[in-house]
Amino acid sequence: MVQEVTPFLMFEKDAEKAINFYVATFNDAKINHVDYWTKGEAGTESTIKRADFSIGRQNFIALDSPAKHDFTFTPAFSVYIDCSDAAEQENLFSALSTDGAVLMPLRDWGFSQKFAWVNDRFGVSWQLNLPFSDNQN
C-alpha cells in the first residue's frame, strides 16, 4: 500500500499569513480547508488549528502550534520547485526572498540553467530550479 506523504508546516502564530502569501505567490495554489482554534481549546483562539492547501499537485498541511518550541524551520528540509521558465523563477525568487534570507543566490551553478535557495519571511526553505531544457542536456 502506498502512503500519502504530505509536508507539514508548523508555525506558532503566522500560519494564516504564510498560507495566504503562498497562495498569492504561486499561480496554481489554493486553500482547500481551514479549521481555527476556538475558545477553550489548546491553541490561541482564531489561529490555525489545521489548514490544507496545495501548490500545484503538492498538498501541504499547516497549523499554529499551541505549544512553544525551541526550534523552527531549517533548510535541512526544503520545498523544491522546478520552474517552467526564467520569468517564473525570478518572480518566485523575488517574492520568497523578500524579508527572508538568500542561501544561494539566483545564478548558474553548473547543474541547471539557474538555481537559487531561499528562506522566506516565515522561515520555510525553498529551492528554485530552472532545469536545462531537453535539447541542452
Short description:
InterPro entries: 3_dmu_93_MTrfase, Glyas_Bleomycin-R_OHBP_Dase, PhnB-like. The chain folds into two domains: 8-64, 2-Layer Sandwich (Signal recognition particle alu RNA binding heterodimer, srp9/1), CATH 3.30.720.100; 78-136, Signal recognition particle alu RNA binding heterodimer, srp9/1 (2-Layer Sandwich), CATH 3.30.720.110.
Write the layout of secondary structure elements.
Blueprint: E1 8-11, H1 15-25, E2 29-36, E3 48-55, E4 58-64, E5 78-82, H2 86-97, E6 101-107, E7 114-119, E8 125-130
Q: How would you describe the overall organization of this protein?
A:
The protein is of the alpha/beta class. It has 2 domains: 8-64, Signal recognition particle alu RNA binding heterodimer, srp9/1; 78-136, Signal recognition particle alu RNA binding heterodimer, srp9/1, CATH 3.30.720. Helix content is 17%, strand content 37%. It is built from 2 helices and 8 strands. The strands form 2 sheets. The protein has a 4-stranded mixed sheet with strand order 1-4-3-2, with helices on one face. It comes from Hyphococcus lacteus.
